[in-house]
Design brief:
single chain, alpha+beta, Glutaredoxin, 4 strands, 41% helix, globular
């Protein structure tokens, strides 16, 4: 499977970089390859139509607005991504991981 493309959009450079590192670690813990980058440029965030709506995490073109970029939220987001989103990409029902059956 190709790696996920994840972008953290937030004008606070330090916060975005720290969140990207933590999200990379969470995804790695789940055994999922992910290319995590950050966008902190106000102009680019505005081009995406997200001015005043950050922080946002974009995954393969889908945008998810977040309350914050704290570690517990990033851990929950990584859990959700690996169980639901990736399962759907692999054609499995939501909440069912590969190799598990009901």
């Amino acid at each position: 499977m190709e790696p996920l493309h994840i972008t953290i959009l937030d004008p606070d450079t330090g916060l975005a970089e720290k969140a990207a590192r933590r999200l990379r670690a969470h995804m790695k813990k789940h055994g999922v390859q992910a290319c995590v980058q950050e966008v902190t440029c106000y102009l680019e965030i505005s081009r995406q139509g997200l001015q005043g709506k950050t922080p946002v995490i974009a995954v393969d073109g889908s945008f998810f607005q977040c309350k914050n970029l704290e570690d517990d939220l990033l851990a929950q987001f990584a859990d959700w991504l690996t169980t639901d989103v990736l399962a759907q990409k692999q054609g499995q029902p939501s909440g069912q991981q590969q190799g598990q059956s009901e």
